[in-house]
Amino acid sequence: MTATVFSGVQPTGNLHLGNYLGAIRNWVKMQGEYDCVYAIVDLHAITLFQAPDELRRNTLEVAAAVIACGVDPQRTVLFNQSQVPAHAELAWILNCVARMGWLSRMTQFKDKAGKHRERASVGLFVYPNLMAADILAYKATHVPVGEDQKQHLELARDIAQKFNVDYETEFFPLPEPLIFGEATRVMSLKDGTKKMSKSDPAEVSRINLADGPDEIARKIRKARTDAEPLPGTSKDLKDRPEARNLVGIYAALADMTADQVCAQYDGAQFSAFKQDLTDLAVAKLGPISAEFGRLRDDPAYVTGILNAGAEKARERSAPILRQIKDIVGFLQA
User: Fold this and answer.
1) Angle between the 241-254 and 270-296 helix axes, to the nearest 10 degrees?
2) Pick from 195, 189, 166, 174: nearest CA to 281
3) What pLDDT shows up at residue 111?
4) Which residue numbers are catalytic?
5) Which residues, in sequence order, are bridge partners of residue 215?
């Protein structure tokens, strides 16, 4: 039986190179190996306030970007999460399984809530349970994760296991992580210690998937480096975060290892390396940018794809949710 993968992306603004190399590119690769269920997780997005019109626009734009990157709606289930009731219904059941102590230890809540936790929404506190519901609503067996998402997957496994123990069943599989190679964590072009982020006010800190060749070249040219030439091995990049970041990006775009990139550019200056990185990035991202622009100008087409995907997702999740309700003891018609 083909293993099932679930993954989601939030509709909170333009996707960038970090989203592409860290997640979306792997979504494309997995289409040939797994039964893939991909969601634009708009329920997660409203844990922080979103202007309604902006949320709708961002949902369509992120869907367009995902398709432009190569996710094929004919081969995968692609939808926006709020169109499938099983996610919210199962999340409530899992709210009653997960423990307060587990959620209190989640580092992303601490980071996002900051010093004013009492002002944070309840949704922000329990959204790891919704993430667990996203996975378990399809009995997904694998989840692609980056370093900063491992804790959430571990929580999903704990919740699934506790449900199985509480109800004396083996209904839920314990989802396994899928961890990919180079550049699973792409850093800011201006600060190699910070993750590349759409919320960074410095536009030159990231390469957006909508950027054209000139913009890509300008941002790589301005990317922070150091005065030393490139080393022959990646272990010598340990204390050079900006250099390590650019080598990692090159390696991911070229399907090479960081060691292979270092061996190729041993002793080279960054001026030459940046030009080659620019050529590579434009070659890889240029077609995506063009297709993204075409799809973004056709919202009716993208909406149709999300609607069709949501129908498939409802067909798959509804019988699973019905079995869960039977296990829990809910009366059903």
Assistant:
1) 60
2) 189
3) 78
4) 112, 195, 198
5) none
